[in-house]
Amino acid sequence: MIVAGFGFRAAATVASLEEALHLARQGHDGHLSIACLATAADKAGTAAFRTLALRLDLPTCAIDSAALTAQPTPTRSSASRVARATGSVAEAAALAAAGHNARIVVARVISPDGMATCALAERNDP
After folding, report:
1. Maximum Cα–Cα distance for the chain, whole Å?
2. Strand spans (E) along the chain
3. How far apart are CA 39 and CA 68, in angstroms?
4. Sheet of 2-8, strands arranged across
5. In whole angstroms, what is the distance from residue 13 CA to residue 51 CA?
6. What is the pLDDT of residues 91-109, one digit of tens each?
7. Distance CA 44, CA 40 (A)
């Protein structure tokens, strides 16, 4: 199961999120089937995030702050660390939603407008 995790600014548009997801999927030739979209709980209800989920016909997962901060992330953004106490909201959301034994398959990428990030995580079932 692949989860697309997102971090984004309040002014991010659907296009920002789509572009970040597109960048995250580059080089995988469509071999990554996304099962759900995840983000911080306080962002999950935003119009841009909900619209993206509707366009892609995917469920969403709202990750609470405790679950975000519990995830070790390969990226160590100082801005994200200050704002959310995690190295990457996108990576932490993807890992938390993918569940136990998840791993990052695509580290955080940033949309061209700098408004959104996306990372992909996969559950490693034993």
Report:
1. 40
2. 2-8, 34-40, 60-63, 102-110, 116-123
3. 9
4. 60-63, 34-40, 2-8, 116-123, 102-110
5. 10
6. 999 999 999 889 999 999 9
7. 6
Q: How far apart are CA 67 and CA 108, in angstroms?
A: 18
Threshold 0.90, pTM exceeds: yes
Q: What is the mean pLDDT of residues 28-56?
A: 91
Determine the Cα–Cα distance for residues 75 and 95; give it in Å rounded to an integer: 13
Contacts (Cβ under 8 Å, ≥6 apart) of 86: 68, 69, 71, 73, 80, 92
CATH numbers and ranges of domains, the chain: 2-108 (3.30.420.180)
Report whether pLDDT(19) > 80: yes
Query: Three-state SS for 39?
Result: strand
pLDDT given for residue 77 in this prediction: 87
Kindly report the length of the chain. 126
